[in-house]
Amino acid sequence: MTFAGAMERVAQIFEAIGAVVLLAGLFLAAGLAIRVLRRSGDGQQAFKVLRRSFGGVILLGLEILVAADLVRTVAVEPTLDNVVILGMIVLIRTALSFSLEVEIEGVAPWRRAGLSGAGHIARAVETSGPPAGSTDPSSQALTHDN
User: Which domain holds residue 48?
Assistant: First the structure.
């Protein structure tokens, strides 16, 4: 088997894995939504669970399918046309990922850190003084009277 043939097989395996992830994720997301619906009886909450979980599955599936395209383009047929097509696929996937992530999280990625624990930690670090026992002369000047 040639290298190009082996890489084509690898790309096909990635595509198959991507399809399995999407299909299994659909059933898993539906199962989670049904479980929430049965436990709480809240259809709105079940729909949110379905949307969030399947949105994450779609993102993962897209990543795997892009990996297949990348292997095929770089290793099997590295022509300029294929590289341009891959670039367009990656741009489309990026736009899809961005819009799905905003849809799932409800906030733009650059605003999420300010709303999450990471944002709270960063603000706490900024407002706190230097660590106790700090050997940094600039921080000691701030903490000790001269």
Answer: 3-110
Q: Is residue 131 part of a domain?
A: no
Q: How many domains does the chain have?
A: 1
Model confidence pLDDT, tens digit, residues 37-75: 999 888 889 998 898 889 889 889 988 998 888 888 888
Chain centroid to CA 135: 40
- pTM for this structure? 0.65
Q: What is the largest CA-CA distance in the chain?
A: 77
- Taking phi over 0 as left and psi of -120 to 50 as alpha, with beta for the rest, 76 belongs to alpha
> Which 3 state secondary structure label does DSSP give 106?
coil
- Is 146 within the bounds of a domain? no
Give the C-alpha separation, 30 to 126, whole Å: 43
Q: What share of the chain is helix, strand, coil (3-state, %, to 5)?
A: 85, 0, 15
